[in-house]
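Researcher: I'm preparing a figure for a lab meeting and need a structural model of a single chain. I don't have an experimental structure, so a prediction will have to do for now. The sequence is pasted below. Please return the structure as C-alpha cells so I can convert it later.
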Amino acid sequence: MKITILFRNWFLRNRWKLLISIGITVAIIVFWINNVNYVNSLILLNYRTEVQLRDLRAQNENLRRTINQLENPERIIGIAERNLGMILNDEAPLILNSNENEKER
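Model: Understood. Here is the structure written out cell by cell.
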C-alpha cells in the first residue's frame, strides 16, 4: 500500500516530464522511420539509374559497332560497284584544299 502511494505521488509530480519524454521519443522514432524510407527510396533510384546507364552504354557500343560496319570501305566499294556500276580507280585521288583555291582567285 505504501509503495503504490509513493508511486502515485511520484507520478503526479513527474507526469509532465514523462509525457514530454514519451512525446520526444515518439517524434525521434517517426523521424528515424521517415529517414530510413527516404534513404531506401534514394538507394532504389540510384540502382535504377545505374541499370539505365549500363543499358545506355551497351546500346552506345552496339551503335558504334554498327557505324564501324557501315563505314567499312570494302562494303562501300562493293555497293558502289554492284548497285551503281562504279569502277574503282587505282590512281590516288586529287584533293583540293579550299584555302588554296581562295588564294588563287
